[in-house]
Amino acid sequence: MKSVLIKYFPCLIIVILAISMLSLYFGWLDCFFYSAEYAQIQGVDYFAVPKSYLNLVEGKSAFDTWGGAKYGPYATWYLAHPAFSVFVASWFSFFSAWTSYWLFVFFSIGIMSYAAFLFSKSISGKLNRQLVYFIMLCSFPVYWMLYVGNMHAPLVLALSLIFLGVLEEINGENDNRLNKKLFFGLLISFFSKPIVLLMLPVLLLVKETRKTTFYSLLIYGFVSFMFIVVPALNPEAVGLNKLMNVVFDFDYIKSSMNIYKNNFVLNEYMKDNSIHWLNLIAQSDYKLLHVDVFSLPVFIDTLIGKEVSAFYFKMPIYLTLLLSFFVPFIANKKSRIIFLLMLLMAISLTFFLSYNTVWEYQFASVLPVIATLIILKEKNLLQKRELNFLIVIGCLVCLPTLYFLVDATKIELVSTLTLIRFLKVVPVLVLFLVIVYGLLKQVLNVKR
Fold first, then answer.
1. Residue 342 · residue 132 · CB < 8 Å
2. When comparing pLDDT for 446 and 443, which is higher?
3. Are 339 and 439 in contact (CB under 8 A)?
């Protein structure tokens, strides 16, 4: 059976990827996604990306998505790092909207393929290498990422590089030199989606990763500062004085800079480049009760029929931060790096458990976790029984939601919404709990 799988798995991957690409045009897979069936949103997250660079060329804010000349039939709000507009979005901005969208789809597939290639280089088993390509290219969250045109593939690559870079430290492959994979992984995330910010404390505390993290932060800080103070890069800046007056006023940020509360009307602060960072605060307590939102807070609130304080959902973040301060005290290098790697994976999962607005495509960032677990299993770095369980649970995220089984006219029912979200939220929660349980158990054993 294994030899048959090895022989035909590549063909299966190619066929599924071809079907996915054709479905983007013909809509064959629309039945698996509520918004694909009942709304016209293909490319909705993409059109703001090239528009952000065109805005800069016109002397307008990169974040003024709906201002100036229209680009594409519709768009969500651009919120990536302003540097992404210049370094990446500019490549696609001189094509017509739909041509640009399709070019970006192929660009994203290329990035996902490269991430799979990087993982495959650390895997000796042929079937496991093929499995990594399968989950990276044929998962339903990846298809939805391509459908809406979200720029999420760079984050997947960033997490892949970070996990692989830390894995290299187990054997001391970098010999206290710059860890290139970790370095570029951090920079790619910083300049696209800064989900790795919560990883910084532990990466700075651990001696094997401190130097690389520090250098990446220096570059990130310098470039980000340029995009705040240089007028051509921040055409509608509010100025440093006004910015400093509100940057620590979290209540004001939450009440005045939330795109949903403002009914998609941008105020002056939301056109300043600082909104890239402030938006994380602006939406930190706001829960968007939408059928396509798959966060744990929304899942629980819907299930029990009342709103639970956002504070309780921040506990996964607090717990992982607490564990971060334990890592430097692990004397054995191999144990320390494995602990660090598992903790980084847990930190990456806190986004789905603590942040309120999580869309289905964002579960593509769970895929590097699954691929890393496959490597750990093959290298016998952790117990195989536990890793097998985690890999199976993680792969559930790759499946479609159970939306195709429900009556769309009853979409607002609690039972329907719970069923739809179950295969995304619960597997991630289980992954996180099992990983953290293992880390806590190791902490207690060391103390004994």
1. no
2. 443
3. yes
